[in-house]
Amino acid sequence: MRPILVTGADGFIGRAVVALLKGRGHDVLALERRAGDILDDGTLSAAFSRRPAAVIQLVGRHIPVQAAAKCLGFARRWGVLRYIHMSSLGAAADSRCRYHRRKWAAERLVRASGLAWTIFRPSVVYGESCDFIRSMELLAGMAGLTPMLSSGRCRVQPIHVEDAARAVCDSLFDPSSEGRTFDLAGPEVLTLDDVLDRIENARGAAKLRVHLPLWLGWPVIALQRIPPFSRAFRRFYAGITPERWLNRDHLELLREDNVASTSVPASGLRTFDSWLRSRSVQPAR
Fold first, then answer.
1. What domains are defined for the chain?
2. 129: region left, alpha or beta (phi > 0 left; psi from -120 to 50 alpha)
3. What is the pLDDT of residue 36?
4. Strand pairing category for 190-191 and 125-126
5. Residues 254-276, mean pLDDT to the nearest whole number
6. Backbone angles phi, psi at 179, to 5 degrees
7. Beta-carbon contacts of residue 187 (< 8 Å; ≥ 6 apart)
8. What is the pTM of this model?
9. How many degrees, rounded to 5, is the angle at CA 197 between CA 194 and CA 203?
10. Which of 196, 193, 187, 64 is CA-nearest to residue 137?
11. Is residue 180 helix, strand or coil?
12. How large is the angle between the packed helices 64-77 and 98-111, nearest 10 degrees?
C-alpha cells in the first residue's frame, strides 16, 4: 500500500490526523514544520519520492497560497491519486479578513489542480493543549476580573480535534467527497462569551468580565515585539505558540462570525460542554 503524506504533521490537527491514520493501519509520511520547510524543493522531493497515494495538506496558516502551490505541483508531478486540503471557515474572495482572502486564493489553486481533491473549512478546532483553549484559560485564570478584547458576541461553532481528524481521514476513501468542500463544525453555535463562561464555570472561577474595544489590540501587538516587553509577554503567554500570540489576523477574525452553512454529518460529534465535563480541569489560580 502506498503511503499517505501529511504536511504539518506536528501541528495540532496534524498530530490527531497522523495518530488516527496509523491507528487504522496506514503507512504515514509525516512532514513536520520543524523538520522541513514545505516551500523547500529538496524537502518535498524527498517526501514525494516515496510515491504517496494521497496528500493531506495541513500547512498554511501564514503561507496558504505558497504552500498550496508547491504541494500541488509536486502532487501532480508524482501522480498523487487523492488530495485533501485544509482551508478555513469563512474563506472568501470578498472577506474583510486578509487571512480568509488568502485561504480563498489557496482553495482556487486546489480546485484548478485537476486532482481528486476535497477541501475542509474548519471553524474553531479545540482539544487538550490547543492554543485556543490555552488562551481562554489564560483569561479565566487572571485574578480579579476577566478582560476580553471584543464584544464577546462573535459566534463560533467549535469542533473537537478528534472529530475533525475523523472527517478528514474518512474522506480519503470516499469517492462521494471528491470535488466537494465541507465545513468542519461542531453541533452547537457559541459566542466567545459562551465559551469563556463554560470554562470559568468548569474551573469554579466565574468573575466580572470587561469587554475592551478591538483597537486596543494594536498597541498590544506592537509592544509584543519590543524588549523588554517581549520578555514579559513571553511569560504571560506561557505555553501558547508564539505565532498564536495576539496578531492582526486575530483582530480581523473577531469582527465576523465563524459559523457553518453546510457541514459534515453531525452524528457522534461531541459538544463543548461534554468535553469540559470529561477532561481534567486545573484548579483556578
1. 4-125+160-184 (3.40.50.720), 131-154+189-278 (no CATH)
2. left
3. 61
4. unpaired
5. 81
6. 70, 20
7. 266, 269, 271
8. 0.90
9. 145
10. 196
11. strand
12. 10
